Amino acid sequence: MNRSFTIATIGGDGIGPEVVDATIPVLETAAGLHQVTLDWDRLPLGADRYLATGETLTDTMFEHLRDDVDGILLGALGDPRVPGNEHARDILLGLRFRLDLYVNYRPCTLLHPDLCPLKPDPATGRSPAIDFAIFRENTEGSYLGRGTARDVGTDREEQIVEEVHTAPKVERILRAGFSWAVEHRHSRVTVVDKANAIPGHRIWRRIAGEVHRDYPDLELEFYYVDALAMELVRDPVRFEVIITSNLFGDILSDLGSQLIGGLGVAASGNLHPGRPGLFEPVHGSAPPLAGTGRANPLATMLTGAIMLDELGVPEAADAVRTAVAAALDAGHTTPDLGGSCTTHDVATWILDHLTP
Q: Which domains does the chain show, CATH number per domain?
């Protein structure tokens, strides 16, 4: 039976439109191989619109994204003409918070051994088989913007940032990570905090222990964030599912992306199970690369694969990942990954190598 989904696309700023344009035919073709049609709804959200109209994300546009689409594919946001990033904050964080996309899911899977900066295992001569996922709480923590400032610009300046962790939201991100671990046949979940120095983080340990009772087949371990950062470099293979707060997840997922080749292959999804998600590559808008043909589209394609998974088309998602891995193996990449291809070259090669 043929299925159809409506996907909103926000090219955004810098290289965003280029990587989205390169990705759309790949996702269309992969989905079509499995009798799925993707209908694209292109939205002109970004710095150009903001500078021309003063608008970021209107209520009408938000309601459309909330009610009328099955997913949102975002290229990148950020433009030097908007140094305060007002438009990026309103669109990206606005959608995360207002759509209650409380899971920021970031897979860290090494697709080619040459991309890993770590030394090979002396015993085997092989790069580590890195394959873990980070579940980052996406709707509270330090990112709520709560706090106070006084005596700004003086030698008495004081900035106070409130870090918020509420029991219902801590519990639901923990359950999302635990459930995903079971569904994907993992055996261990790692919960990350800084409870030894920040008493408020003890809520993560207490609730994780309570949630763990419903998942008795999983091993639960706790790490302080500084210790985990060290262990991810020393022995990343032992980790499977990492669950943590907004700020720590943001930092650790960038570390994880570097272990697998950098931001050019780092994908993410902002999710609320059962609702349309917002899918964005981890890299930024990279204004100096815009229009040069050197933008790497692989992270956006891998992000699109996450979207296909969420739409219930895992076979199409696997086809995209397989073709991306083949491109890496063939060295058919943009300069940031050591190749000499253009954005268009990479997209064309991957299109030619998509198989059911």
A: 1-104+263-356 (3.40.718.10), 117-259 (3.40.718.10)
